[in-house]
Amino acid sequence: MTESPAEMLNAALETLIPVAHRMGVRFVELRPGFVKAEVPAEGNGNHFGVIYAGVTFTLAEVLGGAIHFATFDVSTHYPLVRSVTIDFLAPGKGKLTATASMADDEIARIKALATPDAKVPFVFEAEVTGEDGTVVARTKGDYQLRPFGR
Amino acid sequence: MTESPAEMLNAALETLIPVAHRMGVRFVELRPGFVKAEVPAEGNGNHFGVIYAGVTFTLAEVLGGAIHFATFDVSTHYPLVRSVTIDFLAPGKGKLTATASMADDEIARIKALATPDAKVPFVFEAEVTGEDGTVVARTKGDYQLRPFGR
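Predict the joint structure of the above. Result:
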């Protein structure tokens, strides 16, 4: 029985972040340094007929946890979001897709600093697109990789 | 039969922003230049036992629409969010409350500029606190007041 990282995280999302699960957020690709998630339009719109800002924010934000899960050691460290700036660039219509990547040298830098005593800050950017490829939003967040039990 | 602005907006929230309604977001005070909303902890946590970041964001963000409803002419203009920065300052535990205010001179400035042809940019800040008064998050957003039909 082999589950992909995306399948594992999808199975856990209802427990990890029930709000995101209820929106229908679903991870579609997770590998070290790259993550991708989707959210359907149904139930997530506002009265202007576009996806509500809080849904777009959530879709981008969950990628911070997902890239941690796909890239770093979840048994010793967890990710914490400190600050996020989200720029809304176009109305989100239909299913939204968010992607984020982290370069190999940035992954190596973070891993080298992630000792049992250290909080490791990192900047994490994500992009949200609509079904036609239009960039709906971009986020830039300050995160920390934190050791458990400190 | 007199409904307060908060009661009116609460009654409409399920239609306006179903996601926020499902989180349990509720407006508790709305008057020109001041808005306040709450969200319960139930169903809105994450696996760390704190309110999920997307819920905190949503609670603060809906105040942008609420202050418009309470302060400006909803028959001629609507609010649009362009960008938001959210700083997460402390873990959100229990019910969260968000407040935002707009000074009289800022309201006067925006009203003077809100002609049928003009998009009026304004900066909107909100603060989210926990049940014990701890500041959980602060947001600073770039919004626009936009005329309908343009």
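The beta strands of chain B are 26-31, 34-39, 77-88, 96-101, 120-129, 135-147.
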